[in-house]
Amino acid sequence: MNRYIADFNSDEIEKEYHDVLVIGSGIAGVYTALEIPEEYDIAILTKETIEISNSVLAQGGIAVSLDKEDSPELHFKDTLYAGAGLCDEESVWVLVNEAADNIEKLLEYGVNFDRKKQGELAFGREAAHSKNRIIHAGDTTGKEVCDKLISVVRTRNNIKIKERTFAIDLITEDNKCKGILAYDEDTASKKLYLSNVVICATGGFGQLYSRTTNPEVATGDGVCLAYRAGARLMDLEFIQFHPTVLYHPLNKSFLISEAVRGEGAILRNIHGKRFMPEYHELCELAPRDVVSRAIFQEMKKTGATNVFLDITFKDKEYLENRFPNIYKTCLSYGIDMAKDYIPVAPAEHYCMGGIRTDAFGRTGIEGFYACGETACTGIHGANRLASNSLLEGLVFGRKIGQEVSKILKDNGKRKFDISIKYSANRSEATVNADEVIRHIQKIMTEHVGIVRNREGLLLAKQEVGKYFDLIKNMKNSTLRDYEMQNIVLLATLIIESALEREESRGAHYRTDFSKTDDVNWKRNIIKKLEI
Ligand code: SIN
Asked: What percent of the chain lies above the pLDDT cut of 90?
């Protein structure tokens, strides 16, 4: 495998220097940028426009133990329970203990969360939480938070937003971060962004699957550029499938928030029978991996493509008020959730694994940090607790901001230049990137999805391996080519990790190893896998 997926000569391409580079414009990226003092010059590189990210689509909310009957200890316990024995406890303590301060900061930035009549924050419920602790803004919490943060970013003269700028690879010398080789989508040309500090907040990789709640930009670019630069990746086999994603001929990726089940909605199979009590004592509010597997089983048993979510016992006015976006979207497909069952099926939603970091986002490459879904601090273990993801972006974003600020203060501003010429022996072979990606999505969905086994994983490995060999020395020239490189690499690494874990735990369920192995289990940490 080549160190860089594109050739470049730093003496010949345009260069731009910044004190800090942030890749990605979701909650983790923009919040971290805001946590760095204004005397430092920051550029946020984002593949699409700044408004397009996975965070914007987050519906449910943010978990925080602010209610008088709640505590960080209970939030800690619930996170560990959902994480199926694989959470990094130290990092989870950081998450739950520092949640409230960061929510305070969001309130200062003007984020409007829903409140009760008396004015206090309203707390919703989601799966596997023992208390009502989800603060929300209707059913578009991510949008409210991102809109407010982006509006603050726009007032900061020290932060430049570089849209339609794709981060191809991390530039390193002697395991030290030097910047980003980027692709300007409008001019179709490469450019070097130089910096000793790069914060990777590129989100997840839902686009490896045929059905996902993630936007089209979620192709795992950050994880792959980190891997090629020598960072360690962790827990890649744990992919969360959200149980209730709309299943309609015209829309198979719209999320029906878990908050709907938090308000009492029940799941029925196509014969109208409620089934969750047969699978778990928490019924519809069991951890996500349990609910998704139960739906998978019911669909298999009944030969159906979906199940139904039933909240018809609530009236229209209530639903329109509590879930305005979901209500409106369902209605646009002819589903009145006050009267009709909503057809749903699980779809890829979140990856627990990613770039291995400590609680300060450090990756092992000097100056290179990771935050949000692309990072893996170990807080989610084998299955993320609902509404811990936006929180993760805030809590660890702030910690990275503090760490980076200290380093910048100690080191002072250090402008530098580099001279690197990289050229690999590349083939002229061309492939249709869209076709390759579609095929990978099919393979991953069929064999590396909610339920796996060795036979399917080996088949997936063989199929993905063919693409890997075909494209590994390709001369990539379009954005889609770069995305394809990342999708194929990541699929390969996920399959390896899933094969390696010969047990079932959280979101990783293998029919050939259906038990959790508490004696021999280990964490999958990948460092420069030889492939
Ligand atoms: C949801 O609203 O169901 C998604 C929330 C989350 O992924 O934490």
From this structure: 93
